[in-house]
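Many introductory courses stop at the sequence. We go one step further.
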Amino acid sequence: MSDDALTLLAELGVTPVLHGGGTKTTIGGGPVRPGVAEVMAQALEHYVVLSELEVAAARWIADAAQVEAAMVTGGAASAMVLAAGAALIAADPRVGRSLPDTAGLVATELVVQASHWGRYTYVYGLSGATCRLAGTVNECPLEAIDAVVGPQTAAITHLQGPGIAQVGPPLAEVCDYAHERGLPVIVDAAAMLPPRSHLHHYTDLGADLVIFSGGKVIGGPQGTGLLLGRPDLVGLARSLSAPRQGLGRPHKVGKEQILGLVTALRAFLATPEEAERAVLTARAERIAEGLAAVPGWTARVVRDDHEFFTPTALLTPDAGTNLAALQSDLLAGTPRVFVQTSHDHQSLTVSPLSLPEDTVPTVVRTLAAALEAAGSR
């Protein structure tokens, strides 16, 4: 069977990558669920009133996710901007068209725990909000949050992510504190699936708005996200989003993306979690077993509830190795292979999530040669 995409990539001079990085956005995200591509292609042939589709899809998603309200966004970063925007205009929705200009607004700050400041936190600021740090990277008691909360505070944010240290109060305590002061809590949980129960876990704990990526483990279109939570705040976020004029106009989500994400979420929720994990575990074990004999390296499969939510092959050198250089060599080689490093930067990680079964032998051979060469330097 011909592959028009491969042909076009070749014409453009772009070489595909064997993706051992899970759902890394810079390598194209992760695989879509069965049926997603077909529904998206079929959607191109039909036209709808987009606002009607938005509302209908949101109703279905909210019911499926067991939350009060939902909307499809142009990725998790888009959901961050819209969530922050909703918090900014909660006191007076009429000012929504002015964002990101916050002139005249009193509450323009989002409180962020210092340990939760990450690569994407700045995205909140695209709404016009200012991020105010609380505590230190090592500790953030509730008193540290209280010290920066005041009339200028629009919301308190909370980050949940793989490998993210939680040195502050539990989310439920943050929510109780915030709600006593009439403040919403925004949770960035973009990569916190599986388990599927996380779709409603954070709102169950009291969060007002929760952000997920649609293009990671859910298996939807790469450029989609979910914003879940309180109906009034989700409604304000929708009022700021495309196709309406305003803050979120550049964050366009087409009918194809909406239907693709609904299809993916339906398949995601219908797939038994343990069965899916068993398939990924077996694939990760084949990778680890294929590399077990490489001198100077230890290969094993890891899965936990902190950093490795899906089974992953962990490759650890016995002695100091420049893992960043090894990553670069693998990506520049033939075939091109992308892997990541663990959060402690002591190991390479190979996720089986975006590696089809028939690519595993090639990945193992390529990695074995690279690991041996690195060990002999």
